[in-house]
Amino acid sequence: MKPENIILFPKWQQKLEEDSMAAIQEKRFEEALEKLDKLLSYQVNKHEIYTGKLICLMELERYDDAQELCESLIEEKDEHYYEYIHIYLTLLFQTNQYEELMETVHNELETGNVPVQLEALFSQLYTMSEKMLKSEENDQFHFHLDALFDAVNQDNHIEQWRLIQKLSKLNVAPNEKIIHLLVDEHIHPLNKTAIFLWLKYAGINETIEIHKFGTLMEMKPTDAPDIKESELAIMISAEIREVEQENPSLHQVMDTLLHHYLYVLYPITPPVMDAPHIADALFHVGKEYLNIDTVSMEDEKVKKYINEIKTTELLYASILDD
Question: What is the rounded CA–CA span in Å between residue 34 and residue 48?
Answer without folding.
Answer: 15
